[in-house]
Structure formats: C-alpha cells, structure tokens
Amino acid sequence: MTVTENIQNDTTNGTANGTANGKADDTANGTANGTIPDISLALNPSDVESVPGLLKDIASTGNSFVAQEDRASRLQLLAQARQLVRALETPRETMLKNCWGEPGAYCAIAACMTIGVFPELAKDDGSPKKVSDLAKTLNCDEKLLGRLMRHLGTMAVIKETGPNEYKPTNFSTSLTIPVIGDGFPALAGGGMAAVYKFPAWLQKYGFKNPESTTEGPYQYAYDTHHNLFGYLMAHPPLGMQFNHHMGGYRQGRPSWMDPGFFPVEERLAAGADTAEGAALLVDLGGGHGHDINEFRRKHPDAPGRLILQDLPDVLAQITELDGKIERMGHDFLTEQPVKGARAYYMHSVLHDWSDETCLKILGRVKAAMRPGYSKVLINENVIPDAGAGWEATALDMMVMTLLSAEERTEKHWRSLVGRAGLKLVKIWSVENGSESLIECELP
Ligand SMILES: C[S@@+](CC[C@H](N)C(=O)[O-])C[C@H]1O[C@@H](n2cnc3c(N)ncnc32)[C@H](O)[C@@H]1O
C-alpha cells in the first residue's frame, strides 16, 4: 500500500489525526493560523532528492576509508551515512525513533547495566545465549529480561540469534568497561530528569536561557538545592559512575598532550622551574585524574610536581593513580594553595559554570600565578560561528539543562578570559568538533 492509499484509508475511516480530511486539526491543538502542513509530508522520505548524491559521496568516501582506514574519512563517512538515513526516513519514523526508539534503548541499557546483563552476555567468547539461561544466572524475571533484550536487539545494541536468544556486539561488550557503560546509570539516576523536564521549567520560569544554579532546570527536576555534582555525590554510586563517564568522554579524541597539538616540551617543560617543590601542572577539578595520569605517562621526564585537585569525596574514590601525582582536596572557589605553578589546567570545568562563577574560579587561579611564568590551560570546546560538531552541541544541551551552564564560542572565550584579567595567548585546535586548548597568561 502506498502512502497516499494509507492517507485515503485514514480519511475514509475518519481517523487520520482525529480529522476527516487527513489534515492535522489546527484548532484542536491551539494553532489556528492554518500553517500546519498536510500529513503526507510526514509520511514520505524526508529528503529523497538528496539520496542519489549521498550514495555517490558515500561510495567515494567509503573507498578512501577502506584504503586508508583513517580517522578523517571514517568521521566523514559516518556523517554522510547519518545524512542518508535521515534522508530516507520519513518524519514519522524519525519522530518515533527519537520519542520511543532511543529513549527505550537508553532505558533498556541502563536497566541491563543494573541487572548485570552485558558481562554475562560477553562470556564464553560471546557465544549466543538464551534469555531463560541468562535470567536464571542473573536471578532476574525472565519476561522482563526478554522484553529489554528484544528492544536492544532491534536497536542493534545486541544481536538476535534466534527466538529469545542473543549474542553481544562490540558496543554491548564495551558497556562492561566502566568509562563507557557507567554514563547510562549515572545520567538515568541523576541527570535525564532535567532534560525531560526542561520544557516545563522554561514554561515556569519564562523562556529564559538558564543561568540560575538555585532555581535552574536541575533543581526543578530533582527538587533539590544541590547542583549536579552535589546531588550525584549525595546519591552513591552515581558520583562514582559519573566520574567514570567523564573518563569515557575523553577517550579516542585528539589529546593536547600528543605531538602536533600543543608543543608541551617547548611551551611547558622548557623553562619550568626545577627547584625542589616547584609545581609543573595543577589539574583543577581533575576528577579521577585521567588527564594528569595521561600527562605523566606521555611526558615522564617533564620536571616538577604534578598535582590533582578536586573535592575530597571525589579524590577518595580514586583506585588508580600514578605514584608521582599528588592528590589535593580543594574547592576551586577558594584560595588556590599551590602558588606559582608552571600551569593551572582545567578540563571540562569552566563549561559547567556561568560566566560569573568562571570569573571567580579564574580569579582564584590568577591570584596564585607567577607573572611571566605561570600559564592557565583551558581544555574545552570552542564552538565555531557556523558548522559546529554534534558532540559539542549535544554537550551544550547537557550543561544547559544539568548545570545552567554553556559551551562557548571563540568570541565568548576571549571575552571571558579578558574579563578575568588574563591574556589569551593562543587557541590550539586540531579538528572541528574536538576540544581545543586555550593558553592564557597574566598580561
Ligand atoms: C565535568 S567534571 C571534569 C573532570 C575532569 N577534569 C575530566 O575532564 O575528566 C568536573 C569536575 O569538577 C569537580 N568540581 C565540581 N565542583 C568543584 C569545586 N567547587 N571545586 C573543585 N572541583 C569541583 C567535579 O567533582 C568534577 O570532577
């Protein structure tokens, strides 16, 4: 049956969207201006004209990828494949994928993480397993598990191998790695409500860009006085899981510590004070120390102390840290105890806060800096004026709803750094969509 026949049938039944003519009823949903398009728009592929061109692009990029297996052509091919899916999907299908498919998969993944499904599924080299056997081993309701796994099968999170039988995929097995899997329960338990309740918050507070951290979307959704970090820490194991999630975010992306990004030897190690007690790098809000550990591993000969700072409860969760790295409980809104370090480093910290709070954090750092020697290194997204990458804009939605904060453009960073009384020396970047390193000094 064609799309037109479908519409005609609905019209005959008088059931198409509650109207007799197959058109949406614009008085019923409160938009009486007659601008609602005909339903056929939603039932045909979104952009069928682009399909031939996209297929050609995909073939050509696909050849480059097969020949080189390089990051750039992989990312380009992925973007083109997404465009093709979107062009072929009807708006109705996209709507259901967004409203049901993805949230349903999120729900099933988080539930299966809690039940312990993925490690069990990965056992015996990932051989196919019956839901009934898994349910017995995991002491879980068989019907429930079957329903969760059935949806995960249709969403390609796991692979169906027969009736009520599945095997893992690389993705489902990767979910057994805490830095990959733990974001699901962390955000299910202490994040997503702020996303889903955002429209209601906007309605209540008058459609303004969120800036309040006492009456923001997060406080509204969780009925709490805490900010995201306080709430997660007050609800174990969410804090620990969230910090693992942060460890996953940074994986597989260009790192400023690698050759071809920021010249670590020339701009940091060279000229660093070698006197006893001199600090090379202070990682503020460094979480579990993923970055400073990486620095230690990649630049083992750089002279000076390496200091990881975060709230004491966060530092107490750390299970693995290079012996040379010092842990120091510190609230970055208070006086910086390490004076005159070569560099004060912050990764994914300032994007969690409003400009006003960032100015306080930077003010504390500035007061500890040694003129002509110390640097501030800010590792964050610098969103271009046009052509932003989806990971950066997605993170912007997260920090907007969870923290009343934002990802910043270059103009915004320059203004913020200037207002903090610092000089922006250079923004080091290697590709659009990955974080940059913003190098600042005292003027
Ligand atoms: C988004 S996480 C980034 C962690 C780490 N820099 C990374 O990139 O993986 C922000 C960090 O800021 C820490 N934090 C929040 N408020 C803080 C405060 N007042 N003082 C110090 N650290 C704080 C959190 O505990 C968390 O580890």
Automatic annotation (TrEMBL):
<dbReference type="GO" id="GO:0032259">
    <property type="term" value="P:methylation"/>
</dbReference>
<keyword id="KW-0489">Methyltransferase</keyword>
<dbReference type="InterPro" id="IPR016461">
    <property type="entry name" value="COMT-like"/>
</dbReference>
<feature type="region of interest" description="Disordered">
    <location>
        <begin position="1"/>
        <end position="31"/>
    </location>
</feature>
<dbReference type="Pfam" id="PF00891">
    <property type="entry name" value="Methyltransf_2"/>
</dbReference>
<dbReference type="InterPro" id="IPR001077">
    <property type="entry name" value="COMT_C"/>
</dbReference>
<dbReference type="InterPro" id="IPR036390">
    <property type="entry name" value="WH_DNA-bd_sf"/>
</dbReference>
<keyword id="KW-0808">Transferase</keyword>
<feature type="domain" description="O-methyltransferase C-terminal">
    <location>
        <begin position="276"/>
        <end position="422"/>
    </location>
</feature>
<dbReference type="InterPro" id="IPR029063">
    <property type="entry name" value="SAM-dependent_MTases_sf"/>
</dbReference>
<dbReference type="InterPro" id="IPR036388">
    <property type="entry name" value="WH-like_DNA-bd_sf"/>
</dbReference>
<feature type="compositionally biased region" description="Low complexity">
    <location>
        <begin position="11"/>
        <end position="22"/>
    </location>
</feature>
<keyword id="KW-0949">S-adenosyl-L-methionine</keyword>
<protein>
    <submittedName>
        <fullName>S-adenosyl-L-methionine-dependent methyltransferase</fullName>
    </submittedName>
</protein>
<dbReference type="GO" id="GO:0008171">
    <property type="term" value="F:O-methyltransferase activity"/>
</dbReference>
<feature type="compositionally biased region" description="Polar residues">
    <location>
        <begin position="1"/>
        <end position="10"/>
    </location>
</feature>
